Structures are given as C-alpha cells and as structure tokens.
Amino acid sequence: MPVEASFATAALEFSQVLERFSRWLISPLARARVMQLRPFRDQARMERALQQVREMVAWLEGGARLPMVALSDVREPLDRFLDHGTAPTAAVLSELARALRTSSRMQRVFSETPDLPELTRLGALLPDLECLRTRLDETIDDQGEVLSSASPALARIRNDITDTERDIQVRLDRFLRSGVQKYLQSTQVAWRNDRPVLQVKPEHRRQVPGIVHDRSQSGQTVFVEPETVVEVANRLTELRADERAEIQRVIAELLRTLHAHGEDLVRTLEGLAWIDSVHARARLVREAGFVVPVVSGDCVLHLRDARHPLLIDGIWYQSAERDAVLARTVPFDLDLGDPYTTLVVTGPNTGGKTVVLKATGLIALMAQCGLPVPCAHAMLPCLDGIWADIGDEQAIEQSLSTFSSHLVRIQDALAHATANSLVLLDELGAGTDPEEGSALGYSILDALHARGVRVIASTHLSKLKDFAYEREGAENGSMAFDPDLLRPLYRLDVGIPGASQALHIAKVVGLDEAILAEARSLLVERDTRLEEVIANVQRTRRAAEEHRRQAEESVRRAAGEAKELQQKTEEVERRETWIREEAEHFVDEELRAARELLVEPLKQFVNAPSPYDERARGVLRLIEGLLQRSSLGRRREKYLESVKKGHMVYVPRFRRRCEVKKIDRKRRTISVDIGAVRMDLPFDDISWLQPLDS
C-alpha cells in the first residue's frame, strides 16, 4: 500500500492547510517542498521534527534571526541537469550560488547553538560546499553573468577588449576632428553587427572612406565603418570570439564540478527548504498562538480548546486580530484512547458534528507532519493511518451510489485500521433505510471497537446512541443545542447523547400541533422520554457552564488584582533599595571629601621635625583605618576583591562606568579608559555604588 493510502489527506482537505501554512514561509524553494509534506510514520522522526520547532521558538525568542533569503525553486532544472545532462541556465547557476551562500550562513549560526541540539544538528546536516560556493561566487554574479575572476585567461581577454575599445574610440575621435562632422547626421558613434560605425548623410557617402554596414529604413542615413578603425575592429571581433570561447570553457568546467557535487547540492536545497519550514512553524507558535503538540506513546489523543484549522483564515492570512478570529469560532475539548476509544457524536444538523470530525483529523495530520496545531494544549500519537468517510461524494467512475461509496471507504478502514489508527465516520448508517442503516452502523462500530481502533462517528440514528451504553470503552457525545433559542452552540459535550431536535424545531417554526401529536404517537415511548431527558440535561449543563464561567471570571479578576498588588510591592521594595544605596553613596562621597580635607594638610607635616612627623603619620594611619574599618569601607574591600579584568566599575570622580583593563592589587590600582585616555586609579576612587541619576 502506498504511504499516502492510509492517510485521508484528500477527504480532510489537508492540502488547503498546507497552502495556508506556505504563506508563512520565506522562500519559494520551501513552498514547493511544503506542498509535498506527508505524515511521518515513525514516532522518532515525528518527535524530532516537533522538537526542532520548540528549539527554533526558543532561539527566536532569544533575539536571533534566521539568515534566510527568498530562494527560487531550482530543483527541477537541477534534476534535469543531474539526470539528463541538460545544462542549467546562468540564472539557475546564480540561484545555486545564492543557496550555497545561505547554507554557509546557516551552518555558521547553528554551530553557535550548543544548547539547542536539534538546531545544531540541522546546521551540521547541510553539506560543506565552501569550495564550490567560492568557485560559483568567482564565476557567476547575481545576474547570471560570468565574472572576469572566473579564469586568468578571461580576465586577460577582457582587459584586451577594454584596451581595444578605448583604441577604437581614440581613433574615431581623431577622425571626427579631421573635419568630417559636416558629412554626418550625428557625431554619436553607433554599432552595427559589433562594428563601430558613423551615421553619414547619403549624399556625402564618398567623403567618408570606409565600409558600409547598413542603411536606415528611411534611407536618410548610411552607417559607415571608417577605414582608420577597420583593423582595430577586426582585432576586437577576434577578442570577443576568444571571450565567448573562454566563457564556454569556464562554464563547462563549472558544470563538471557541479555534477560531481550533485547529491550534496540536492541535500543543500532540501535542507534549506526544511529549515525555512521549521522557522515558519515557530512563527505560528509565536505569532499565531499555535502550540507544539506532545507525542503520546500510548495512542492517547487529548485536545484542549481545539479549533478547525480552516475556520481561522484571519490568523493564517494575518488579516485580522487573533483574538477577534478566535472569538468567532467555538473550541472543543476531546479525549480519545483513555478512558474510551470510541466516541459516538449525535445532535441536530448544522450543529458542528462534521466540523469536529474534520478538525480532529486535520490536527492529527498536522501533528504527524511536525506542524504546530491550533489548540491550547495537544497530545497526539504517531498514527499508522487515518481513515475518513466524510462527505456525500458519489464514486461515479466506479458507478457507485452515495451509499455504496460510503461503504467502499468504510471497508478500507475495516480492512486496514489497527489499534494505532484513527477512523472518522460522518453520518454513519445514513443514505439507506434507517433500520438497516442502524444495524449496519452498529456492526461496523462493534468490529472497529473490538479491535481497539480509535473511532469518532457522527450519526442521527438513535440505535447507535445505545452502542456507547452497551460497550465498555465507548462514549456518547453531542453537539450542544439551545432548544429555547433554536440555535446550535457548536460545543462538543462528552457524556450525553444529543437529540435530533426535529419535533422541537417543528413546533417552534409553527408546524400544526395535530401533525406533531401524531408524530409523537408514532415514536417509541422510550425515545420521547429520552429526548426530554436530554433536553433537560442540556439546560442544566448550560446553567452550570454559565455559573462556572462567572466563577472563573471572578477568579481571574482576583488573580489580576493580586498580581497588580504584588507588582506594586516589588516596586516599593526596589525604590527602597535604590534610596538606601543612594544614601550610602552620599555618605561614601562625604567621607571621601572629609579624608581629602584632612589628608592633604597632614602630608605637609610628614617631613616635619620630630615629634610632629610621627604624629602626622599616626593621624593619617588613624584616618585610613577608620575609613577601612567602617561598614562602607569593609563593603568596598569585599567588592574590590571580586573585581576582575573586563568588569565594569563606577568612578565617582568622572561620574561614569568604565571597563577594567588591568588590576595591580599590590599597588592597589585599577587601569581604566576614560575616553581615549588610559588611567591608573587608586582603589579608593572606585565605588560599587552608582547614583540613580548617573
């Protein structure tokens, strides 16, 4: 069986999800690859893809930017070249050069993410083609033109061409100054067939000796190559022929090198496309509010606040505010696999049953392709298949009716689904006689349930509601409906079956009471009682939901007020710390000033006759001791012990922070740069305090 055969991508319209996702990509190269995405069938690969998204989110939130450019998709011409030898155009070669430059940047930035192993691995998987990149950069420019640096011979030929063109211009200028201007329509030099010509009036053709190359359509101009430049122009023609030959040789040699690295080039393009894809997935998480699903190893599926991916176009297309889009769609919660594996969803038409089935299938497909999903939380298994019978399409090519086409799809699921599969059955048992449809639908559910297959089935048939009551591991669910307002609520309620609401709707729209009474009499008594019970349960549930919503709102308000109070408390504590440090800074500066006032006069007495010199030294030691033994002095010493080269310190004298260049603890000095000047400052000039206004 083909890989795609077990995943109902077409029935679930998965291609539309991929088309929307492709709008978040940077490169057309990646768009072509994304449209070919298929679910991983290996759990390890699925988990690795999702982990790459988590790491990309963390990397981007750290302020990084992906060095990706909008690369064109050149896989098809590259494949033709590698498979059939069809030479790529200069534009394709230029695009390959851009891809290799981008790959080099990717390898460089991801080599600097050792704490993000999956991103490091993505960079390491890109082939090292630095030599080929250099060769392409030296050979082809961004416009696809061959550069003179492609070979020494080409550079020499082009220099000769430049010199020859200059010689031609000099000769023409000299010829024009010889007095022939009066015979010309214009003194502007023209080129015909790569030959330099002058625009001569027909009646003066013989006054301008040379070779006629062309005539204007009106016949009013004759294009003549003067004899004085014929020989030099011949040389120019030869040089241009040499240039073309050398370009062909350079390109041929380059193509041989490209072919030798063909597999690595393909890997490079695929790797860049995948990295662009991972970046787009991370953007969905950061900007669209999607979540990266957790992979469950026991085939359990949990979805919280899940939404149908195709009902939130305003988010995909970034055309509306996210909250406004979410407010227009009703989320649903779903648990499948624990404690139940089969969920039977009932309820009225247009109530959203099909939306829930499709949304579940699409979210499972997205997760299995390594994509984030539109949920508040998601845990999904790596499934071996997703089968879906959704829609009323007839298999015309097989001459099958609507009911028969349903059975063909269901039979495929019955034949292949396992306990590690997901089966989605929309309107099970519909399209035929209700009694026979009920019996057949019951048997289908029984067969899948006995095998442990994860099944979500929607139906209108009352008999199938009994299935969940009669089978352990099966559960009923319903799409909520407001019978009083006569409108669906689009909310999935698990635990109770849904009522069809047909008689109630008929009564509200005004159908004759006699007809309604006869209809009720035709129903089995149990069915009418069940409808009434379900309606009462749903009313009670809606009231409970409203009370719960009000309670949650009160809790949210209280939490917000508590958070605001906490923030104000923290702000007060910060201000208190700042004020205390400002005061200490003021005291520290006053002590410094006092020391300076005392020390300078005392120094004059150090060399005085005894006993004044000894007394002066004693007073100096006393002052220094008092300063060092004070609480501020001890704090400064402890701070200075921790200062190292490269640290930033505050210098009160200059009111600025400076980087420490050198520390001499023996001399108790620190070297810093003040502007362009390197200065050695004593320890006493350094402070751990910094005023608030600095």
Written overview of the protein:
By secondary structure, the protein is an alpha/beta fold. Helices cover 53% and strands 15% of the residues. It is built from 21 helices and 18 strands. The chain has helices at 14-22, 28-34, 43-61, 75-84, 90-110, 117-125, 130-139, 152-180, 227-260, 262-288, 313-316, 322-327, 353-368, 402-416, 434-450, 462-470, 502-508, 513-522, 525-603, 612-629, 631-642; strands spanning 184-192, 195-200, 210-215, 222-226, 294-296, 301-306, 332-336, 342-346, 377-381, 385-389, 421-425, 454-458, 474-482, 487-494, 648-651, 656-664, 669-674, 677-682. The strands form 4 sheets. The chain has a 6-stranded mixed beta sheet with strand order 10-11-12-8-13-14, with helices on both faces. Helix 7 (130-139) packs antiparallel against helix 9 (227-260) and helix 15 (434-450) runs parallel beside helix 16. The radius of gyration is 42 Å and the shape is flat. Residues 1-5, 394-399 and 525-529 have low confidence and may be disordered.
Number of helices: 21
| Rg estimate, integer Å | 42 Å
Global structural class: alpha/beta
Q: Unreliable stretches, pLDDT < 50, 5 or more residues? A: 1-5, 394-399, 525-529
Shape: flat
What's the story with the biggest beta sheet? 6 strands, mixed
The share of residues in helices is 40-55%
Would you report the number of β strands?
18
**Widest sheet: strand ordering:** 10-11-12-8-13-14
- Which percent band covers the strand fraction? 15-25%
Quote the average pLDDT: 84
Tell me the span between the first and last alpha carbons. Answer: 73 Å
